[in-house]
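Z., the sequence and structure:
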Amino acid sequence: MSLSTLMRRFALIIALGFAQSSTAVSLKAETKALTVDGSAFVLRLPDGRVLRGTELAGATVYLALDGDQLAALRLAAITPDPEHPDILRHDFEVPDGRGGWQPACEPNAYGERWGFPVSLPEDHPGRDHAITLSCASGAVVKCARFGYKPWARGPHGEDLVPLHAACVRMVRADYCGDGHAHTRNGTMIDVYDDLAVQVRGLGDDPSFSFEAGWSPDGAVCLRHTRWTDLLSRERLLAQCPRLARIAFCDEPVARALGARLFNTSRLSPSPLPTP
């Protein structure tokens, strides 16, 4: 069972058992004892001890699924990301059905199969549950790696949760803000914002043009869709009347409409190779 399948059925994290060579502890923890701080699990033990982040490497988390079924999720390894030390890479593993373990995450475009837990507000488009588990191939992790970490602050103390939410919409090409993605894994886009967390890097590439401005609710206006064979601009505007009301979209128009992020993409992207 993959992590995405688990998350569709996941009710809440209810228990955790682990063994460490130094303490040889085995326990079941109440849900409230297992929380998330940034991208790290935090476990408060009955005896007052607190285990955090990398200290939980080797633990097995049990997820409560439909019908009181438990699903095991092993934290095989937990290591800081080399470029973003406050992002902890969790090697999530699930039973392989043969007595062993296998990666829970599908690989991203670079073959990475790790993920992390995060606590997101209830209205956040990336939120699955009180604790969201996301893989490196997913928008929640990608946007954190872009610099929009929902637990952090911007260069002048700005709350980055709205930018992270807008980024999740953008990465998924969720133009209407209705939870429907219109992109393909591995598609190249150029992302930038007014805080300079990300700056425009492909401005001299004529094959890239302005696509949309983004808010936590989706695109505020749209110049073109990312993959016209998945969704044409005309069909999108028919589905999303609020975007159809904006006759022209460029960066200044999007900014005036409340965009927090902007992106460019290829007008005619080449088909991606089949894995």
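Residues 57 and 77 are 5 Å apart (CA to CA). The radius of gyration is 20 Å.

Let me know what you think.
H.
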